[in-house]
Amino acid sequence: MKNNNSKELTWYNNASKVVNLILGTILLVIVFSQSFAANSEFSLKLFGSIINHNSVYLFVLIYFILLKFNVGKKYFNYLNLLLIFLYGITTVTSLITLVQAFSLNTVLEFSINFFLLVYLFHTMLRGTIVWKDFRLNKSPFNELSNDTQYYIILVLTVLMLIVDLISTAVLRGIIISALDAVFLVLFGRYIFLYRKYLDDNKIDIDNEGNFDEVRKTIDDTVDKAQDKVQDVLDKTDIDEKIKGALDKTDIDEKIVEVKDMVVEEVKDTKDAAVKFVKEQTKDLKEEKPKKKVVKKTTKKTTKKGESK
User: In degrees to the nearest 10, what's the CA dihedral of 126, 127, 128, 130?
Assistant: First the structure.
């Protein structure tokens, strides 16, 4: 029984079988996508969605087909670089989608793409010049073991499948979501097996990177920045400068000067107003006798005219 069970379970440790399953899954995804599109009303939005969905699958399909031939094995590292570049673009795209439409689905999609990119980056570049030139052996993500990274992909994929099944009411959507999940699990397993091959053959296994060093570096940087700010504040002697500025301005004396100026202006205005009123009153007094004389003269002239 044990031998039979072990034989039945060895498929996921066989890289050739995993690659064949990936190829079959991709073909099913493309066929089902095209058939669903043919049965639906054509629209540019639907066409664009299919192209975006299948573009990654088409490249991955070409990638695994080439690995079946000598040309793919010869340029294996270059194909891996293109694969990493593709998932880099996919990760950036999913991040933009997350910012534009925040939801549980977009969060899971971005998380899967990000961890797949990290997993690819720290697996496919091992044993290459890029790994040594960029000193990727000191990357903090090397702290994550092969099993840990694969299980992260597996758990995120299962969570995303559950969310898709809950939010999708159409049968074709359920089928596509299930096939996407199967592909992600198999693709993650392919990366897992290649990393296991690198570990077994002792290829770039001396990795020193860990998250504790990153945390320590960040803490040290923050502490240094705080010390520099404090030194600047101490050197400027802000308190003494403020006190000196207040002493130089002699605020009390300025207030007294302003007060005296206001009093002077008010006094001058009052004197001018009194003078103006006196002058006006004097003119009125002088005008009244004049009016009486004119009145009397007019009366006398009128009487003389009447008598004549």
Answer: 40
